[in-house]
């Protein structure tokens, strides 16, 4: 969450800000030429607007060919005004003051999304992001493991970061995530195979007992030793290792 800039006047995204940002992205000599001759925003594919105390996203409609956008470390409260950026592949909105995931419906090419260090309490409104491969939403206010179930719709998701959310304190957090997202390669900056190795062996040996209504656990190796598919039926998943 970005509170460190609250004593500074909030900024809006205007032509002057983006012009300066683009010039700074180029090597010094090229930047001078760009400043002298001007820049066609339609030719820009990457834009970095980090650490500029931006309160509101606006005036980005001219960047219709943008593929990478950095808006991290600002004071943005709402995801908006991105609908024209249909070619975005990479979007960083980390370290802001965002409370709700929204405004992403047209970003159907997005592969990498970072929403870490915000104030988000629910994973939602992301159905259009079917190309998503990397999703970082650590250090937010996610409290329920049901948010993990929502992520099952992203068949290409391979890297997920949830660290720093209250839901991570659940003793069965890791096993639950791997069960519902069996194609993950990295979870919370670690290989899934390393993260679950100490869990899967006792489970396979039959040393787990279960309680709760209509709860079953089935473990079946798939695609080699690394991946296992765990199917949970019901949201009651209270269980522990037996002695």
Automatic annotation (TrEMBL):
InterPro entries in UniProt = Cilia_flagella_integrity, Leu-rich_rpt, LRR_dom_sf
Compartments, as annotated in UniProt: Cytoplasm, Cytoskeleton, Flagellum axoneme
What Gene3D superfamilies is this protein classified in? Ribonuclease Inhibitor
Q: Where is the signal peptide?
A: none
Name the UniProt key words of this record, in alphabetical order.
Cell projection, Cilium, Coiled coil, Cytoplasm, Cytoskeleton, Flagellum, Leucine-rich repeat, Repeat
Q: Which Pfam families does the entry mention?
A: LRR_9
Residue ranges annotated as coiled coil are: none
One GO location term (cellular component): cilium
List, alphabetically, the PROSITE patterns matched.
Answer: LRR (PS51450)
Q: Entry's SUPFAM superfamilies?
A: Outer arm dynein light chain 1
Q: Which family does it belong to?
A: Belongs to the DRC3 family.
Q: What name does UniProt use for this protein?
A: Dynein regulatory complex subunit 3
């Amino acid at each position: 969450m970005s509170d460190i800039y609250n004593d500074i006047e909030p900024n809006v995204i205007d032509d002057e800000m983006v012009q300066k940002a683009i010039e700074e992205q180029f090597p010094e000599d090229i930047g001078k030429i760009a400043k002298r001759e001007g820049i066609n925003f339609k030719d820009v594919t990457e834009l970095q607007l980090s650490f500029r105390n931006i309160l509101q996203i606006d005036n980005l409609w001219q960047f219709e060919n943008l593929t990478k956008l950095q808006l991290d470390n600002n004071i943005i409260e709402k995801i908006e005004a991105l609908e024209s950026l249909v070619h975005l592949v990479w979007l960083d909105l980390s370290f802001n003051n965002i409370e709700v995931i929204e405004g992403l419906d047209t970003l159907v090419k997005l592969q990498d999304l970072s929403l870490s260090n915000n104030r988000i309490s629910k994973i939602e409104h992301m159905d259009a992001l079917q190309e998503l491969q990397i999703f970082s939403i650590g250090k937010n206010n996610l409290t329920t493991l049901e948010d993990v179930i929502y992520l099952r719709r992203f068949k290409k998701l391979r890297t997920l970061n949830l660290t720093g959310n209250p839901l991570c304190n659940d003793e069965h957090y890791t096993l639950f995530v791997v069960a519902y997202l069996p194609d993950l390669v990295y979870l919370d900056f670690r290989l899934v195979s390393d993260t679950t190795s100490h869990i899967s062996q006792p489970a396979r040996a039959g040393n787990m007992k279960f309680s709760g209504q209509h709860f079953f656990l089935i473990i079946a190796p798939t695609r080699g030793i690394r991946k296992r598919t765990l199917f949970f039926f019901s949201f009651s998943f209270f269980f522990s290792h037996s002695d």
